[in-house]
Every structure is written in structure tokens, then in C-alpha cells.
Amino acid sequence: MAALDSSGTEQPNLSRILRTTAVALIVALIALLLFVLPAEYGIDPTGIGGVLGIDGLGGAASGSSGAIPEAPTGSSLISDQEPRSEQLEIAIAPGEEMELKLVMQQGQTVVFSWTSVGGPLYSDLHADPFGGFEGEDIRYQEDLSTSTSHGAILAPFGGNHGWFWRNDNPAEVVVSLNVFGFFGVTKEMRADTPR
To answer: What is the pTM assigned to this prediction?
Structure first.
């Protein structure tokens, strides 16, 4: 039975305090062994961390230093060159064909968006390498009749990457093109412009 002080409140019993502390320490030790060590440090002395799927959740897998793995080669582009942005309005007369090319080095990337006002166009997004080796041209996308296209180009080789448009409409069509990314100059080539 607990002792009462002069105000009538129960005095703590030393054996009860020791028992409660011992139970709390045992519960904390079990939690440490079963959950904290496997999840935070990749140490799983009981094997329960692997069974529960919490082994190495804190970033350190068993036996590893906890370092972040490296990205695969070619999955990113880090450049000293600042990205460029261009917004172009390109008028294409009825029956006219024209190309707009971005000079890009291998691995460079651009994001683009274009729309046409005045009618749909034949559009061919393609690339040809520097030096124009036969059979090395590639086509990214071809549309027989479209008024819009959005996407990205990741240059598989150094060369000219861009669009061929043909206006089969009876009136002029104006293309609004936005490009952002890593590229050199922009070349506009009309049917009477030498490549």
C-alpha cells in the first residue's frame, strides 16, 4: 500500500518507479533492435527489418556507406554554356516549303513548342549530322497535317536538328515557334536558300 503525505496525496513508491523504468527500458531496447537499427542504419540483428521491408529505409543499406548512387551516364547534361531561348514568327507562303534548323552538339537538349495560324502544315522534325553522312539522317516525327507540336529533342549526334514545313493551303500560314535549351545558331532555309 502506498504512503500518503500530510496533504493526503499518494507518495511515489520506489519499487514501482524502478519497475516502470525497467519496463520502459525493455520496450525501448526492443524498438531499437526491431525497428530503429534496421530502418535507420541497415543493421538487422533479428532479421525482422527485412521481413517487414524496413531494412535500410534511412538511406543506409546493409553494408553500404549510405552514399547516393550515381546517375547513369548520359542521363543528364551539365554545361558551362547558358541555355538559350528563341521565339520566332515564320511566314510560309502558299505552296512554299521551308526548314528551320538548330545547330546542336551531341547530347544537347532543347524543349520546343510551335503552333500555326492560317491552316495546318505538313511537318517533318528530323536531323542530319555534320558532314551529311549518307544514311545517318533521322526522323523524330512526321505529321501530314498539323497545326501544333510540342516536345523535346535530345541530340544523338552533332548536326542540324529541326523542322521541315510545307504549306499546302491557299493562303499564307504563320508558325509561332518557341525553343529553349542548348543549341548554337538557328538556320532558316527556304526552297531558294542553299543548304
So the answer is: 0.61
